[in-house]
């Protein structure tokens, strides 16, 4: 037993070195659990749409509405995450996500779910994912010394790849075969479990003490910072090329993924 405990500590140290800090270990654990739920929904959403219609167009819409918030909200979400405390944003987005999932489970259980209802729920879940993923990644510099940011971000990226894109979708498809509502129930559990992992955690306040304190000033600052960010991106040639390349890649990737369930 002692040997097993020692081996477990060595593995943990290799995966997440102690020098990065216990707060980051908790964030990584919560993020890993949350990514598993995201991955489950990646498979469950199109499968649920395919159970409601045979039309490839409407099935592809299910994949579109989940990703659409990234196009519509990501810039604004980034500014908001920089202006407000990140842990409360994570809690709010997680509880909203759990509520939407619960509504979706009820609609499935009552056999009243239709495509418009599904699309609205999937879009809401996508909105939550934008704020959650942005907050999770933005909170890292608040917790980790700058010299360790490389390894911390690498661990978060690995968590996303393994849970969100590999294990999660496979598990989501398997659970969907058992019962259509089960993947969404598991996603509720992972969402709340992630909150349990970070319960009571304290994060240094990253906000600018001179930040706007009124709604009008806040909106003006939001517009200004969005304009500055877009201008910087367009005038920075390497980042502009990279962004346009990723934009084109994601469109072609989305076209394939949207109809993969068929």
Task: Please explain how this structure is put together.
This protein is mostly helical and 262 residues long. It has a domain at 19-200: Growth Hormone, Chain: A. The protein is 82% helix and 0% strand. It contains 9 helices and no strands. The protein has helices at 2-15, 22-52, 56-83, 86-109, 115-143, 149-178, 182-197, 215-235, 237-259. Helix 3 (56-83) runs antiparallel to helix 9 (237-259). It is globular.
Brief summary of the model shown:
By secondary structure, the chain is mostly helical.
CATH class of the domain at 19-200: Mainly Alpha
CATH-derived topology of the domain at 19-200? Growth Hormone, Chain: A
Number of strand segments: 0
Question: Strand-residue fraction?
Answer: under 5%
Number of helices: 9
- The whole-number mean of residue pLDDT values reads 85
List the helices and strands and how they pair.
Elements: H1 2-15, H2 22-52, H3 56-83, H4 86-109, H5 115-143, H6 149-178, H7 182-197, H8 215-235, H9 237-259
Helix pairs in contact: 2-3, 2-5, 2-6, 2-7, 3-5, 3-9, 4-5, 4-7
What would the keywords be for this entry?
82% helix; mainly alpha; Growth Hormone, Chain: A; 0% strand; 262 residues
């Amino acid at each position: 037993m002692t040997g097993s405990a020692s081996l477990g500590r060595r593995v943990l140290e290799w995966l997440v070195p102690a020098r990065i800090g216990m707060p980051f270990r908790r964030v990584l654990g919560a993020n890993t659990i949350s990514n598993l739920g995201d991955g489950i929904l990646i498979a469950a959403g199109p499968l649920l749409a395919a159970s409601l219609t045979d039309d490839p167009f409407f099935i592809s819409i299910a994949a579109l509405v989940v990703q659409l918030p990234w196009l519509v909200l990501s810039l604004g979400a980034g500014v908001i995450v920089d202006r407000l405390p990140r842990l409360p944003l994570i809690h709010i987005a997680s509880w909203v996500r759990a509520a939407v999932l619960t509504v979706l489970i009820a609609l499935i259980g009552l056999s009243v779910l239709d495509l418009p209802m599904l699309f609205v729920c999937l879009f809401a879940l996508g909105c939550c994912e934008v704020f959650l993923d942005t907050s999770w990644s933005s909170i890292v510099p608040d917790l980790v010394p700058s010299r360790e940011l490389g390894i911390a971000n690498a661990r978060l990226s690995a968590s996303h790849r393994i849970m969100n894109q590999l294990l999660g979708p496979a598990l989501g498809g398997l659970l969907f075969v058992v019962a259509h509502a089960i993947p969404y129930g598991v996603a509720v559990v992972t969402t709340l479990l992630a909150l349990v992992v970070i319960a009571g955690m304290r994060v240094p306040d990253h906000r600018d003490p001179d930040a706007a304190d009124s709604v009008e000033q806040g909106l003006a600052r939001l517009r200004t910072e969005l304009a500055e960010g877009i201008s910087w991106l367009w005038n920075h040639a390497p980042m502009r090329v990279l962004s346009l390349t990723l934009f084109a890649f994601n469109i072609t990737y989305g076209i394939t993924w949207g109809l993969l369930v068929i």
